[in-house]
Amino acid sequence: MNRIFIFLFCLLGFASVSAQIHEVGVFLGGSNYIGDIGPTTYVAPNELAFGLLYKWNKSPRHSWRFSYTQAKIKSNDSDSDSPGRTQRGYNFENNIKEVSLGLEFNFFDFNLHEFMPKVTPYIYSGISYFAYDELFYINGKQKKDYTNGALAIPMTIGIKSNVFDHLILAFEVGTRFTMTDNLDGSNPKNKNLAPLKFGDINSNDWYVFSGFTLTYTFGNKPCYCVNK
Length: 228
Fold this sequence. Notes:
Layout lengths: L1 H14 L5 E14 L12 E11 L4 E15 L6 H6 L2 E16 L12 E20 L2 E24 L2 E12 L27 E13 L10
Antiparallel strand pairs: 1-2, 1-8, 2-3, 3-4, 4-5, 5-6, 6-7, 7-8
């Protein structure tokens, strides 16, 4: 966590000498998982998710975006509509700590130097790396093997508005297609645990962050603004 704050501090130092608009802020919302345990509802937050984010607005239409988000994910077969899962009765918890870097694209111009209310939908994608616990089950009980890391592809859609001077409020839903099938313990990578696999081992797991971001904008007037 300390490394994340050091990284953001370096970004702020860079921002002070760059003729661009910058945003720094927080994310607060919920998380849910989609995989081999529990329901398969696409957006159904059941645990708290929170994080930090930074944006470098290169034009009124696009921004480079960096974020750190952490959350617990959990699911329970008893909440599933599938009779097979309900009868199996597994449940799990895991912890996600994610860093993400990519491009945010606004559907409409979002020029922060025009001091009037503005609203735009946006999308975001890039690459994420996250830490999680490798799990497995023995006699229906969850066990932890070791901490691992994997890549994910974020796919986020949201809507934002400049609610106050220098403050931007947004609501977004972001799915992560992960490069692992063991957020839930269904497909342990440890070869000694291969007999304990269950579920669809050819389909990777997903997790979802949905919630609000609040960012503070600062920086010099960029070159894409037209002087009047």
